[in-house]
Model the fold of this input.
Amino acid sequence: MLRRGPLTSADLGDFQNFTPSLSRPVRSRTQMQPADAHFEPHEHAWVQLAYCDQGLIQVTAMEPQGHTSFVVPPWRAVWIPANTLHAVTMLENAHLRTVYMHASATPAGWTQARALVVSPLLREVIQALEDMQPGPREDALMLLTLQEISDAAPHHLAIRLPQDKRLRALCDAVLRDLARQATLAEWASHIGASERTIARLFRDELGTSYLQWRQQAVLAHALPLLARSMPVGQVAQACGYSSDSAFAAMFKAAMGHTPSQFQAWQA
Done:
């Protein structure tokens, strides 16, 4: 596995070429990265938007309130605040496009990492910014990029991991065996806690229910399998679904596309 980090002097030099400033608050760069390439946890003083128009990446943000893992297909992006420790892994060969933004461009209230829907316009503007020279056209594109990002629809494609030891043990057990169809009461019994206590911890620590959290875990597990052309039926079974149609309906409701459409785009 190719691993990068802590950042080398070459990496830092490359970053400096794209470092945003008050005069050029938005910079865009592109890289081809092979499957399993990995940027070790690092942080920087600017905001980052991680997005790939081909492939599949995983971004893990290590924030004070806990770790959040995002599995990012081509029509989604992850917004990472300035000075946030984060790691990036290529789950498949990826054409990675990264937007760096000056911290002053942070929209009000955006204090945590989040997944966003990449609109067709935002996709084109990000590409147009690459290798752009300073001037009126770049100024206009930078303003449009910031506007499109701030207006982008949020997408709840994330697995948050709790700090409470009991809830973390349960979440880790679920992630190890997503094919198991167990109730919250059964998982709670597995770690010696009551269903009521675990339901409260999900709500208080993660702001979600167990079923909503598990669906995010299922999607994160399913996307790489689908990207590798595994038959939809086998992916459904690996995620604990006895019915292909039920899995496909869940996937489309959450992602806006069917599993087969996702696979066609990866081909």
